[in-house]
Amino acid sequence: MSRAFVREDDLESRGEFEGLERPLPPRPILITAAGRARLEAQLAETEAEEAALAEDTALAADSARQHLQREKRWLESLLTAAQTPAPEGGDEVAFGAWVTVEDAEGQEQRYRLVGEVEADPKAGAISWRSPLGRALMQARKGDLVTWQRPAGDIELEVLAVEWD
């Protein structure tokens, strides 16, 4: 039978399919010091899981081991390529800053500008490359910025710029 008609799931279960590598984000890859620490902890955890599977010869363990190896390669590449800029401080929004903004309805939101790999909008961590992140970059307290969104532009006032 031609290998063209073999499901990738079957190949992976037999350890013959490595799967796709996760792509790195566009360069420059920036991460905060806290983000770097989380990624290093995640790498250590992945290495520990891989070591725990080292003696298991079952096919399922082989597939899990391949997944962990891909994750480990991605984390190592990411940590090697990533830059962790020192916090700039001051009153201008830059990478790593916490920014409090207010919209026209008086609702306040607080965001931290971080790298793509550590962005978590629910926790207030937004990518510095996102539309909101780009709108906030280089703004100062009291500035009005326009957040361009598909649903319509929103004007925000920068209330505070803080640093860890």
Description:
With 164 residues, the chain is an alpha+beta fold. It folds into 2 domains: 3-81; 98-162, Chitinase A, domain 3 (Roll). 34% of the residues lie in helices and 17% in strands. It has a 5-stranded mixed sheet. The model is unreliable at 11-16 (pLDDT under 50). Residues 1-21 have a biased composition (Basic and acidic residues). InterPro entries: GreA/GreB_C_sf, Tscrpt_elong_fac_GreA/B_C, Tscrpt_elong_fac_GreA/B_fam. Residues 91-162 form the Transcription elongation factor GreA/GreB C-terminal domain. GO terms for molecular function: translation elongation factor activity.
Radius of gyration: 21 Å
The low-pLDDT segments are: 11-16
How much helical structure, as a percent, in the residues? Answer: 25-40%
How do the strands of the widest beta sheet line up side by side?
Answer: 3-2-1-5-4
Please indicate the count of domains: 2
Keywords: Elongation factor, Protein biosynthesis
Protein name: GreA/GreB family elongation factor
Region (Disordered): 1-26
Pfam families: GreA_GreB
